[in-house]
Write a structure and sequence with these properties.
Length: about 475
């Protein structure tokens, strides 16, 4: 197999209807408030609907999930409860996010079943779900490889494979696992590859897995994606935390992600921020899946304002309106920097990325600038002579919302409207504007409530009922 040298020019359309999508899929884009296709969607959707292999070079926040999910959904035969599409992602968090997005985009398709096949969860439940049948699956390479090896995952009917964030999968060492998975899939399939960068390893992967692939890129088209302002702050390693505090104090933000290279750094930074009363929590590989999901839900719901994370744990974070990314420790590989800062500057908003560098000759800064073609301007922090301890006191305070965990979810037929009804009805008594983001998962739900009202809201949920049934409600976080 070989990759075509031809590139597909971006044909930007202002309407999803003109891309060849079915009416029920166009309708869901309207229901979700999509104003017009992004550049990557306008270029990729017609090619994928035509059955072409595709290489998409697109940064985080460009709308790439919808770019491959909408054509995948349209090409499904819903009458056959057999696995027809598989999406491989580098991490559990990204897999969960992609599955949620696909379910949302396909909500007008009756009977659609999308499974999540990831580690950190019992394989038995996933094997049983596969035995019952599903149309699509989203998973990590290791777990998918294991399920294929045990015979639990039947891919005879599979026609579409998507490798999402392929460069990240290679960075994390999943290349051999991906190769093992691909060898077990039908040769006659459509293969789609999305990546923020296209190093030689990705080109070799594309050459091995694809046939005459169409190439699309948002970087050569005058894309209207908002600019991310990128700075560096020069600081000795021993003064790194003080520099972080000054960045947080001097760069206005409502939500921020602070990236570290090591779990020990994540723990130390989180402990010091929380010890000073600053709204912060951590996300690293030492957390089990339940607590990782809980932290991510709280962050998405504005129940925690700053998230301290490692790269592996931080994949899949999808937060609207993220104001600031701070590289507390610069990554060794410049491609990881691209993924990190792609979390901000989304949804047509401007973004800020600040990197703490050890000095003007930091080789990691030079490699980042070589890769991106952007120079990181030095940011001089003016705190009007205040100490970092005083600045910490200024940062202290709760997040605007607080999350409540409810012991019922989608499998209990609980819907967001049911939770709103319980909170605003006679038993709950809350005003609608006191309720924030609601996430309904398979067996649990999260609802954000105005911070000072959360304990009362949880108490009233415990006394009352949701759809005539009692569920336990617990306030989580600080």
């Amino acid at each position: 197999m070989s990759v075509s040298a031809r590139s597909r020019p971006l044909t930007v359309s202002n309407h999803f209807e003109s891309l060849g999508l079915a009416p029920e899929l166009v309708q869901v884009t309207q229901e979700l408030g999509y104003q017009a296709p992004t550049d990557i969607q306008a270029a990729a959707i017609p090619a994928l609907l035509a059955g072409r292999d595709l290489i998409g070079k697109s940064k985080t926040g460009s709308g790439k999930t919808a770019a491959f999910a909408l054509p995948m959904l349209q090409r499904l035969d819903l009458g056959r409860r057999e696995l027809q599409g598989l999406v491989l992602c580098p991490t559990r968090e990204l897999s969960a996010q992609v599955r949620r997005d696909i379910r949302t985009l396909g909500r007008n398709l009756p009977g659609l079943t999308v499974l999540e096949l990831v580690g950190g969860q019992p394989a038995r439940g996933q094997r049983e779900a596969l035995a019952r049948g599903a149309h699509l699956a989203v998973g990590t390479p290791g777990r998918v490889m294991d399920l294929l090896g045990s015979g639990a995952l039947d891919t005879e009917s599979l026609r579409i494979l998507v490798l999402d964030e392929a460069d990240r999968m290679l960075d994390m060492g999943f290349g051999p696992d991906v190769a093992t998975v691909v060898r077990k899939l039908p040769v006659d399939r459509q293969t789609v590859l999305f990546s923020a960068t296209l190093p030689d390893e990705i080109e070799r992967m594309a050459s091995a897995y694809q046939r005459e692939a169409v190439r699309v890129s948002t970087e050569t088209t005058g894309s209207s994606a908002p600019a991310i302002k990128e700075w560096k702050v020069l600081t000795p390693p021993d003064d790194r935390f003080e520099a972080l505090v000054r960045v947080l104090a001097c760069r206005p933000h409502e939500s921020a992600i602070i990236f570290c290279n090591y779990k020990a750094s994540v723990q130390q930074v989180t402990d010091r921020l929380q010890g000073a009363g600053v709204s912060a929590d951590r996300l690293d590989g030492s957390l089990d899946q339940f607590h990782r999901d809980q932290v991510l839900s709280r962050f998405r719901a504005d129940s925690v304002s700053r998230l301290v994370a490692t790269d592996v744990a931080g994949r899949g974070i999808d937060v609207e309106g993220l104001d600031l990314v701070v590289n507390y420790e610069l990554p060794q590989q410049p491609e990881i920097y691209v993924h990190r800062i792609g979390r901000t500057g989304r949804a047509e908003a401007s973004g800020q990325a600040v990197s703490l560098a050890v000095g003007p000759q930091d080789a990691r800064v030079a490699s980042i600038e070589d890769l991106t073609g952007n120079r990181l301007s030095e940011l001089r922090l003016d705190a009007s002579g205040r100490s970092h301890r005083d600045l910490l006191k200024g940062l202290a305070g709760p997040a605007p919302m607080r999350s409540i965990l409810i012991s019922g979810g989608r499998k209990d037929k609980v819907r967001p409207g049911d939770i709103v009804g319980a909170l605003t009805g006679d038993a709950g008594g809350l005003a609608g504007n006191a309720i924030g983001k609601i996430e309904v998962q398979d067996k649990l739900s999260y609802v954000a409530v105005q911070h000072d009202l959360a304990p009362m809201a949880a108490e009233r949920l415990n006394r009352g009922r949701i759809k005539g049934k009692r569920y336990r409600a617990t306030v989580i976080g600080r």
